[in-house]
């Protein structure tokens, strides 16, 4: 099922279900968000801090559910990633999410929330920029807003570097590699059967990427994957093992683990040019042209 589109006059809700936000960066990004023509509803505990968490588990869960239940809110935007989403998912009612049909936006640690929406609520979501950095490119912001609103501009193809040829059309599922690994054995374990898998990562050495991919493979999670779209591997090169390349490591494991096309260096992930992608919506991956394109809106425009 698709969430409802962000219509004129509908509000965007902001909460921090994971790590604490930087107040200065948050204020700057909220100022930008307020200029986009939609009211903003802030979670009660948005600026809370409890060590490496944005407040206690109960506070973060309360904010998320309050936005789900607010009839004026159409989109729920995670303020940042970090860590903490997995601690509150057991308190989220899947049926309520499905009935509310609100578009949830985030990436990084929010990968678990997007996987929960996909696996437990049967609801599409948006893997895209949050409010944790001021340098998100205008193109990335424009694409994200277009996808929220169901506008055709959000469906423009992303271009990367071909690794293996082939063309597939299938649902697009994925996110941050280590968080997909963290979903193994949970109710929201990522379901990649018949899907195009998209991956990105930050600050993980090549051996760590290797371990995560092998874990996914040996747990059977990669069974049935029809193709792979690789985003950015940021700060993933090793000083200790300079002969080990992050890109080469990922290519080696994936090429021997799945059939189908592979495209790398696509513009999404922990970078300023983080172009949003729909989780659970059909896409086209062209391994020869090095292109990834969404074939349908992430939201239901006429609902």
Would you tell me the overall average pLDDT? Answer: 97
- Would you identify the CATH H-level superfamily of the largest domain? Murein tetrapeptidase LD-carboxypeptidase, N-terminal domain
Strand content: 15-25%
Task: Name the CATH architecture of the largest domain.
Answer: 3-Layer(aba) Sandwich
Content-based structural category: alpha/beta
CATH topology of the largest domain: Rossmann fold
- Alpha carbon gap, first and last residue: 11 Å
* Number of H/I helices: 8
Kindly give the count of domains: 2
**The CATH class of the largest domain:** Alpha Beta
Number of strands: 14
- What oligomeric state do the depicted chains represent? single chain
Secondary-structure element series: EHEHEHEHEHEEEHEHEHEEEE
Largest sheet: 8 strands, mixed
General shape: globular
Low-confidence stretches: none
For the biggest β-sheet, the strand order reads 6-14-13-8-9-10-11-7
Cα radius of gyration in angstroms: 18 Å
Helicity range: 25-40%
Supply database-style keywords.
303 residues, alpha/beta, Rossmann fold, Glucose Oxidase, domain 1, six-stranded mixed β-sheet, 14 strands, 28% helix
Secondary structure elements and pairings:
Layout: E1 11-15, H1 23-34, E2 40-42, H2 57-69, E3 73-78, H3 94-100, E4 103-106, H4 111-120, E5 125-127, H5 138-149, E6 158-159, E7 161-164, E8 167-176, H6 177-182, E9 196-202, H7 206-218, E10 227-234, H8 246-257, E11 262-264, E12 277-279, E13 282-286, E14 291-294
Parallel strand pairs: 1-2, 1-3, 3-4, 4-5, 8-9, 9-10, 10-11
Antiparallel strand pairs: 5-12, 6-14, 7-11, 8-13, 13-14
């Amino acid at each position: 099922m698709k969430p409802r589109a962000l219509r004129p006059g509908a509000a965007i809700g902001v909460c921090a279900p994971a790590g604490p936000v930087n107040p200065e960066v948050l204020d700057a990004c909220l100022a930008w968000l307020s200029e986009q023509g939609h009211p903003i509803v802030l979670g009660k505990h948005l600026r809370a801090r409890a060590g490496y968490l944005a407040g206690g588990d109960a506070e973060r869960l309360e904010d998320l559910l309050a936005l789900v239940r607010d009839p004026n809110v159409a989109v729920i935007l995670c303020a940042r990633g970090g860590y903490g989403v997995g601690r509150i998912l057991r308190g989220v009612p899947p049926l309520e999410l499905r009935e509310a049909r609100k578009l949830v936006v985030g990436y990084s640690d929010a990968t678990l929330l997007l996987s929960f929406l996909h696996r437990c609520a049967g609801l599409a979501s948006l893997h895209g920029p949050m409010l944790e950095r001021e340098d998100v490119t205008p193109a990335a912001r424009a694409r994200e807003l277009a996808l929220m609103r169901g506008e055709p501009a959000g469906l423009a193809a992303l271009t990367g570097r071909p690794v293996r040829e082939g063309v597939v059309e299938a649902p697009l599922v994925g996110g941050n590699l280590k968080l997909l690994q963290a979903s193994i054995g949970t109710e929201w374990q990522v379901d990649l059967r018949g899907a195009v898998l998209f991956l990105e990562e930050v600050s993980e050495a090549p051996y760590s990427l290797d371990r995560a991919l092998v874990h996914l493979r040996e747990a059977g999670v990669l069974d049935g994957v029809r193709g792979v779209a690789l985003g950015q591997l940021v700060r993933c090169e090793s000083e200790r093992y300079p002969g080990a390349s992050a890109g080469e490591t990922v290519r080696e494991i994936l090429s021997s683990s799945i059939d189908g096309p592979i495209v790398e260096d696509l513009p999404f992930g922990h970078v300023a040019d983080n172009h949003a992608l729909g989780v659970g919506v059909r896409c086209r991956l062209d391994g020869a042209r090095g292109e990834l394109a969404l074939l349908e809106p992430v939201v239901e425009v006429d609902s």
